[in-house]
Amino acid sequence: PESPPPPYSRLSPNDEQKPLDLSDSTLSYTETEATNSPNVTPGEFSDASTSPDAVKRSHWCNVAYWEHRTRVGRLYTVYEQSVSIFYDLPQGNGFCLGQLNLENRSETVRRTRSKIGYGILLSKEPDGVWAYNRSEHPIFVNSPTLDIPNCRTLIVRKVMPGYSIKVFDYEKSCLLQHTAELDYADGPYDPNSVRISFAKGWGPCYSRQFITSCPCWLEILLSNNR
Q1: What InterPro entries does UniProt report for this protein, alphabetically (predicted)?
Q2: Which of the 8 DSSP states describes residue 88?
Q3: What is the rounded CA–CA span in Å between residue 202 and residue 88?
């Protein structure tokens, strides 16, 4: 392969969430590639989504970054098999949330943004889409394939630092029936989207009922099943 596989691909597939060896040399391959790239100097941010080679390939998802109900920045289009989504790194290659400016941020958002750190590694695998929590704080995830079938209660999974989770299962997605009749109070229902909140949870078990109440969150819009 052109690049090392995500470290969790070598672990047992039996557990829903998998712990990772933080000393794994492949953990930071994204930053290593950025350092060795002739187009990226140390400390420079590289937007891989707009490179000439990337435009020729079809994308598999778009990523939107939100702060409460406000989308910040443009959609980030992903062409590579994996992408790092982080706050700020001296040698980063991926979606840098720290560069997205917004006037009059609340103190709550500022505190949460400071907890994103190394963020997540999002990877497209043969069995689905995986998210690995590289930050020092938990992330919270919801997607159609993580919900319990025929259950009207929103299921939000908490993923601790150093763990990964299959945020979207291709096979299960194909088996799921259309659920347009369900009434989702927090907005339109998209069967091909994943929502990930940094540090703050939402849903029935939290004071925040809707993800739009979370300070910093991602919307992963998958294109493979559309």
Answers
A1: Dwarfin (IPR013790), SMAD-like_dom_sf (IPR017855), SMAD_dom_Dwarfin-type (IPR001132), SMAD_FHA_dom_sf (IPR008984)
A2: -
A3: 25
C-alpha separations of 84 from 66, 75, 79, 108, 134 in Å: 17, 15, 12, 24, 9
For residues 196 and 174, what is the distance between their CA atoms, to the nearest angstrom? 22
Choice between 151 and 184, residue whose per-residue pLDDT is larger:
151
- Tell me how crowded residue 68 is: count the other CB atoms within 10 A of its CB: 17
Asked if 73 and 65 touch (Cβ cutoff 8 Å), the reply is yes
Q: Mapping DSSP to helix (H, G, I), strand (E, B) and coil, where does residue 22 land?
A: coil
Instruction: Provide the H-helix boundaries in 9-91.
Output: 29-36, 52-56
Q: How far apart are CA 144 and CA 154, in angstroms?
A: 10
Instruction: Give residue 151's pLDDT band: very low, low, confident or very high (50, 70, 90).
Output: confident
CB atoms within 10 A of CB 134: 23
Considering the chain, what is the average pLDDT of its residues? 77
DSSP state of 58: P
Q: How far is CA 57 from CA 42, 45, 49, 60, in A?
A: 27, 21, 10, 10
DSSP 32: H
Domains of the chain: 61-180+188-222 (2.60.200.10)
Q: What angle do CA 22, 218, 145 make, to 5 degrees?
A: 85
Write the DSSP symbol of residue 211: G
Assess contact for 85 and 61: CB atoms under 8 A. no
